[in-house]
Amino acid sequence: MPTTRSLHLAAEIGGPPRYDAASHIALARLAERGTLDFVTFRDSFARPGPDAMAVLARVAPETTRIGLVPTVTTTHTEPFHVSSAVATLDWMSRGRAGWHADVSTTEAEARLFGRRPAAPAPALWQEAGETADVSARLWDGWEDGAGIRGPSTGRDPSTGRDAPHPVDFEGTTFSVKGTTFSVKGPARVPRPPQGRPVTVFDATTGPAARAAARHADVVYVRASSPERAAALRDELRRAAGAHGRDPDGLRVLVALTVDLGDAETAPGPGPESGPPLAGHGTYFRGGPVDLAELVTHWYRAGAVDGFHLTPLTPGRDLERIVNGTVALLQHRGLFRTFYPGGTLREHLGLARPANRYAPRGAGAAS
Amino acid sequence: MKQMRLAVRFPGADSTTVRGGHRSGGQIDFSSFAHLARTAERGKFDFLFLAGEGPRPREHHGRTHDLGVAGRPEPLTLLGALAAVTDRLGLAATVDATDNEPYELARRLATLDHLSGGRAAWHVVTSPDAPTGEDVRRGGHLDRAERYTRAAEFVATARELWDSWTPEGTPRPFAHTGQHFDISGEFTVPRSPQGHPVVLHSGDSDEGREFAASAADVVLTRHRTLEDGQALYADVKARLAAYGRRPDDLTVMAGVTVVLGDTDAEAQENAAALRRLQVSPRNALPAPEQVRGRDLSPYDPEGPPPGVGPGPEPDLVRGRARTADPLRAADTRRASSEATGLAVRRTVVEATTRQSLVGSPETVATALETFVTAEAADGFVLVPHLTPGGLDDFVDRVVPLLQERGSFRSAYTGTTLRSHLGHAEPVWKG
Is residue A176 part of a domain? Predict the structure, then answer.
């Protein structure tokens, strides 16, 4: 089944907490030089670090093509605010925004907000899925071009297209009064350039995988062999199909923490060559060429759509990924050498979704 | 001469904004925001000010109100991006204290302050529109007094979080227990370049002034006559002592619209043309409908005023503050319309559009200086009529005059918004 589809590569640029803009901008530009699909910026209320959405908004005007995917947690934030911020990032980056939905499971995080106690992961992931669902509805709430005032729109108000649609969404996750969420809408932000910014879920755990199959455009999995990765990918595609989705609208990336620090003395390529890092996916230790071999092997085996790489030391390892691994993959004709498209959806080969509220035949790809 | 402060508000979706012409751009495009921000920075402005996400779009007979329809970006995310295209300009976002939580918002503001090198500001508002509460978990609607106590505790809590790391960069646990918030843990962001982002509040109501005196660095007011402005200024500054603050600790900035012309007469003509653009025929009817509570759609907005009395359902236009005495306003307008023989639309134009300063660059510069020297304001928030080129003329023609006369800075002397405003960094309360 290889290689009619393209290889997709993404990289995390967060690393140890930094609060100045310059270091983040430098890493995003480096990743853009490597024509990666997108960069991510992890975020959690549980440990020091800046707000990821703000960091990638700051990076947006400093880059031109690369996708920008901040982690946005859904447990203690308002779904309505999540959708507005992600839509705004899409406008400010001209269609390069995504968001990685995550949950806050600890009691310590719950105490920072004091609104409700920590809840079991399955309920939180279901709520994250509902947040993705209501966000998609809010993004569809304005028809394409509606609510946008400019010299060139000249819209005729009598068509009614300018009127945004309320969503009247009722969350179902928590039955305890006052803890479920509801959103009446409509959105205050016009439909973003991508229609719906790209939604990313990490499907490592069961409840997360269920939400991912329903709501995600990009899914991370963790696997120590191409066979295991292929099985996870098939499972996700089947589950997506069961929800009435086109399985080809899903991009499954293997999450890999990479340590390219000491290539000469590395024990050899392959994810089995080092200890797994808790919470950071499968661990790879080796040289940039070894990493390229692994990517090539797994990709040619049809096991994955691509990789999400978390450099152990961003400054050092991302440079080696771009100048070593990516350069080799490009040389082999496996990875793009320039961005043919402008939006993150275009990089990922994902169609711009039609608006669920648009009249039939309207609101499709523009 | 005393130096004034200047800020610009990105034109919102209200009747101040007109569209059309070569200087009019999209109100959601980044390039429009970048243009206005760069223009303000070229004019050495103190800060750019963004409205909040706002209430649900106004509707009129099931159809979204013509001028209220424009969607807007979420301001804090937008300011993160604008920090990339400016170096010195302060960046202020309007964020509701009713619909947010202190930990999350304090963290976003502190992050913006870091990423912008000390230029973040927060315009605290307390949601005046009931519909806003329908989009968040807390739900329901707080009454006016409760919104203010929540906002006050919100700001105090945010300051505790901003103070929770030592100036040397060591995180320390915080705990806050109050009427509205009971939270504890560790903040994820070190103390930011300004110590605390600058806090703004609108002070047109009595509660607003008291809140500003107790908790804000900048109080925003409507434009008033010189005498009324002086009264407000004195009132606000007098409230500071009760909080152990000095008069200079709170900057009073009046919102103004400016219409320029080569001569005063030409400016008046420009202003008249602008007023007609601000009230389109379709927007003329909601004003009398709002006060009469009747559907007036069969009437011609360019025709004589309809001779109908008040209906049973005032305030048809959602999300807009009620007129204090709607029937009296309606009667006054109708009487005026009948007396002058003006059409409905023209009457609405005369009754609802306000332009604070109209004149040549010299006239406008002098008026601004007069307000500052007479202690009616410390500075101004300009609200341009056009998106995004509406500030260009002011920066090109009025700012140089102010600079020549020594009433406005010719160069930034500091890097943070706090330094532009002449405010000291807040004392760290460890």
Answer: no
Chain B residue nearest residue A77, CA to CA: B104
Task: Summarize pLDDT for B179-224 with one digit per residue, the tens.
Answer: 999 999 999 999 999 999 999 999 889 999 999 999 999 999 998 8
Asked whether residue A65 is assigned to any structural domain, the reply reads yes
Distance CA B337, CA B326 (A): 16
B388 compared with A218, residue with greater pLDDT: A218
Higher-pLDDT residue of B137 and A138 is A138
State whether A188 and B85 contact (CB < 8 Å): no
Residue A236 placed within a domain: yes
Instruction: Report the predicted TM-score, pTM, of the whole model to 2 decimal places.
Output: 0.89
| A56-80: b (≥16 Cβ within 10 Å) or e | bbbbbbbbebbbbbbbbbbbbbbbb
pLDDT of residue B423: 96
Task: Kindly report, residue by residue over B143-157, the tens digit of the pLDDT.
Answer: 777 888 999 999 999
B95 to chain A: which residues are within 8 Å by CB? none
Per-domain boundaries in chain B: 5-260+357-421, 280-352
The answer to whether residue A182 neighbours chain B at the CB level (below 8 Å) is yes
Nearest-Cα residue of chain A relative to residue B63: A163
Structural domain for A223, as ranges: 8-112+194-348
DSSP strand E in B113-197: where?
120-125, 174-177, 182-185
Rg value, chain B, Cα: 22
A77 chain-B contacts, CB cut-off 8 A? 104
A332 φψ region: left (φ > 0), alpha (ψ -120 to 50), beta (else): alpha
Taking Cα atoms as reference points, which of B41, B37, B38 lies closest to residue B10?
B37
Interchain pair B77, A53: CB under 8 A = yes
Would the CB atoms of B101 and A76 count as touching at under 8 Å?
Answer: yes
Give the minimum alpha-carbon distance from B177 to chain A in angstroms, rounded to a whole number: 10
Q: From the CB of residue B133, how many other CB atoms can be counted at a distance below 10 Å?
A: 18
% pLDDT > 70, chain A: 84
- Name the residue with higher pLDDT: B283 or A345: A345
CB contact under 8 A, A84 and B74: yes
Q: Looking at residue A298, which CATH number applies to its domain?
A: 3.20.20.30
8 Å CB contact of A162 and B28: no
Q: Give the number of domains in chain A.
A: 1
Instruction: Tell me which residues of chain A, numbers 68 to 127, contact chain B at a CB-CB cutoff of 8 Å.
Output: 76-78, 80-81, 84-85, 87-89, 91-94, 108-109, 111-115
Picking from A112, A181, A182, the nearest residue to B183 by CB comes out as A112
pLDDT single digits (tens) B2-54: 899 999 998 765 555 555 554 555 778 899 999 999 999 999 999 999 987 76
Domain B5-260+357-421 has CATH 3.20.20.30: yes
Give the CA distances from residue B269 to residues A325, B354, B362, in Å, rounded to whole numbers and listed in that order. 66, 15, 17
Alpha-carbon distance A148 to nearest alpha carbon in chain B (angstroms)? 6
Average pLDDT over residues A244-271: 78
